[in-house]
Specification:
Blueprint: E1 2-5, H1 6-11, H2 13-23, E2 26-30, E3 33-38, H3 54-65, H4 74-83
Parallel strand pairs: 1-2
Antiparallel strand pairs: 2-3
Length: 84
């Protein structure tokens, strides 16, 4: 564990970054009293996205709309606009 003041972290960031890589933690102080802990960032593992399934999406829409008419589809509106 390394201790650095707020000012030192701000003005000597490359040094702080090296110390963080070496020790894994920096305690940031103000007036010699600890105020924060700086830890290295570890990204969360990403889950793979599933491929879009139009049939499943239509089922979801029907469930959400509970049998109500969905109205004119976007595809129909685009076809109408393109023919004009």
């Amino acid at each position: 564990m390394t201790r650095m003041s707020v000012r030192d972290v701000r003005l000597k960031w490359p040094e702080a970054e090296r110390k963080l890589a070496a020790t894994g933690e920096i305690v940031i102080t103000r007036d010699s009293k600890p105020v924060a802990r700086l830890l290295p960032y570890t990204p969360e593992p990403r889950t793979p996205r599933t491929r879009f399934d139009p049939a499943a999406h239509l089922r979801w829409l029907q469930k959400v709309w509970r049998g109500k008419s969905l109205g004119v589809s976007t595809g129909a509106l685009l076809d109408r606009d393109r023919t004009d």
